[in-house]
Specification:
InterPro entries (chains A, B): Resolv_RecU, Restrct_endonuc-II-like, tRNA_endonuc-like_dom_sf
GO biological process, one term (chains A, B): DNA recombination
Oligomer: homodimer
Pfam family, one (chains A, B): RecU
GO cellular component, one term (chains A, B): cytoplasm
Helix content of chain A: 25-40%
CATH architecture of one domain in chain A: 3-Layer(aba) Sandwich
Radius of gyration of chain A: 19 Å
GO molecular function, one term (chains A, B): nucleic acid binding
């Protein structure tokens, strides 16, 4: 998979020997995501960085597809001719970070003041509940696109808000709630989304019993 | 997802109140897999059982597909018209079991005396290495179809055999090696493949430093 620095230069895995040109490149002080990359691409990029550096092993799960018709012009080149997108039964990302199971969902909103619950499904909430019950680290990476702000929001908080809205409370999580109970993640050069730093903070917080 | 008892009766989630008919059903003493189920289906079934009983949260990852062409007759019914199977970059199954990250691959062979390495890919071995390095529980569930025997074989052993065959050693793992270094899993009623019992044994073994 080819990926690029925010300045558009292709990434090459020779960190110890940067070319003179790369070394001369000034670091941007503010990064608003890599040009033209979706949140998913930014996370895939970050996960690849974390894997290369043996920090964690996290992948996005493939999109689940219901295959209906396949042609086999040659066995090695089966062509799927009819298939449908299925709703995922779990969250999109999982893996292992220093012995701990991590499980998360990544979501964007165009809203500036709150994160609507319609971005989530009941089965994802139940999946979080089951994983937390087993001792997993579960969260959502929320991006407020108009604000270009990213947060790690703990699944424990999400679940309590979700259960409340089922009982009639507000149908979204306010930005101030996200700021107060989440952990902001600032875009940087590599990994572009350093979400494991936020996970470290989350772990410290839960060790304090907060 | 509908699933069935080995006798073909559909499974209904009312364990506490079995119907009289089900209660009278004698338990089979030997089970050779559910009729007509593939190893994948047996494992999905077992994972569903484990999830329902809050024992573990493990899923098979969806098959990765490269989508080339999608028709949108209506937004809710997008039809994939051209797509191709991609090689998975990881193993097929992962999840969490009592706080521990588990990661495994399930493979069948028609061979009676050995498990050929052609069932594995280099990137799967590297994935195991990376996950073990993070403290994950990694293994293969091997099925010798003609023998109807199932084993959990630790990824640590697999990696050492793989590295040796790259250096010219045998291109398969002998059945006696699998018997000696793996843990046999006997089919049972529910879950049909009780592989977490074998994981418990694996953990005991590694705690003893064997």
């Amino acid at each position: 998979m080819a990926f690029h620095y925010p300045n558009g230069q292709p990434y090459t895995n020779n960190e110890t020997k940067p070319t003179k040109k790369q070394a001369r490149q000034p670091e941007a002080t503010t990064l608003f995501g890599k040009r033209g990359m979706t949140l998913e691409e930014e996370l895939n990029d970050s996960n690849q960085y974390y894997r290369l550096h043996a920090t964690a092993v996290v992948y996005k799960k493939p999109t689940p597809i219901q295959i209906v018709k396949v042609d086999y012009p040659a066995r090695s080149q089966a062509v799927i001719k009819e298939a449908y997108f299925k709703q995922a039964s779990t969250t999109d990302y999982n893996g292992i970070y220093q012995g701990r199971y991590v499980d998360f969902e990544a979501k964007e909103t165009k809203n500036k003041t709150a994160f609507p619950f319609r971005n989530f499904h009941q089965h994802q909430i139940e999946h979080f509940r089951a994983c937390l019950n087993q001792g997993g680290i579960c969260f959502v990476i929320m991006k407020f696109v108009p604000l270009q702000r990213l947060f790690l929001y703990p699944a424990t908080e999400l679940i309590s808000r979700w259960d409340a809205q089922v009982d009639g409370a507000r149908k979204s999580i306010s930005l101030s709630d996200v700021i107060d109970n989440g952990i902001e993640i600032k875009y940087q050069l590599n990994p572009i989304i350093p979400y494991l730093d936020a996970v470290d903070q989350l772990l410290k917080r839960s060790n304090k019993g907060v």
